[in-house]
Amino acid sequence: MTSLILTVSNSFLINLGYLHVCVNNPITPTPTPTLSPQSPPLSKTGAQDGLLDWVQPRTEKHYDVNNFTTSWKDGIALLALFDNIKPGVIDMDEIMANEDDIEAHLAQGFDLFEEHLGVPKMLEVKDLMVSKPDKKSVMTYISAIKNATQKYEEERAKHALDEQQMHKNRGEELYAQGLAKYAQASADDESCLDDIVADAIPELNECDGSDEEFERIKEEAHHKLKDATVRYVRMT
């Protein structure tokens, strides 16, 4: 009966130790980042339509861009494009409420793309404040924004993947440390249980066979096992 009690207790301690390792060293899953899609290939109708295909989904929330001349005159399309690429930097509601402040919007747009994406100011405010801006110049500038945006999104995706790998490596390191700690504690506990059994066997052999004596030996072994359990928990 004593052997059965100690065997069950040993199994309980091992399970308790493994549970402790799992609880105290969780590997937090990191959601997998979504890579930003590359711009669509140029359509058969030419570079203009291909560039429009890239611009329109990014500006449609605030502005309907349908060309590379008059659509860019008031600066709203430029700011809407920036807000899509770098959300939260500007307040589009406030901008839309002051849509007649054309010169300020254009200047702000040029400044934002230069500051946040490194796009040089290929145009000046006065270049767009005309009846019909030069299409080639506008397309060249928007193409530069597109290229800078793709680079920015690729770098952001790479950074997210690097972060994910870092968290994974850290999780594996913590788990390995937990397993090592658990293995050491288990070995120490097994040695302690062997000592408890070794101490109890001679007493059982020498006892008078009475229930009282057997209960005394069993209770003494139980207290030693309890002390071992407390030490085990502290170690883990």
Task: Characterize the structure shown.
This protein has 236 residues and is mainly alpha-helical. It folds into 2 domains: 2-31 and 168-235; 47-163, Actin-binding Protein, T-fimbrin, domain 1. It contains 8 helices and no strands. The chain has helices spanning 2-24, 47-59, 76-85, 92-97, 102-117, 125-128, 135-206, 211-235. Helix 2 (47-59) crosses helix 7, helix 3 (76-85) runs parallel beside helix 5 (102-117) and helix 7 (135-206) packs antiparallel against helix 8. The chain starts with a helix and ends with a helix. The model is unreliable at 1-44 (pLDDT under 50).
* Largest sheet composition: none
Unreliable residue runs: 1-44
DSSP helix fraction: over 70%
Q: Strand share of the residues?
A: under 5%
Task: Identify the overall geometry.
Answer: rod-shaped
Q: Which structural class matches the secondary elements? A: mainly alpha
Number of H- or I-type helical stretches = 8
Radius of gyration, CA atoms, in whole angstroms: 36 Å
Total beta strands:
0
Nearest-integer average pLDDT: 77
CATH class placement of the largest domain:
Mainly Alpha
Order of helices and strands: HHHHHHHH
**From the structure provided, what is the oligomeric state, counting identical versus distinct chains?**
single chain
CATH topology-level fold name of the largest domain: Actin-binding Protein, T-fimbrin, domain 1
Give the total of domains. Answer: 2
CATH 4th-level superfamily of the largest domain: Calponin-like domain
CATH architecture of the largest domain: Orthogonal Bundle
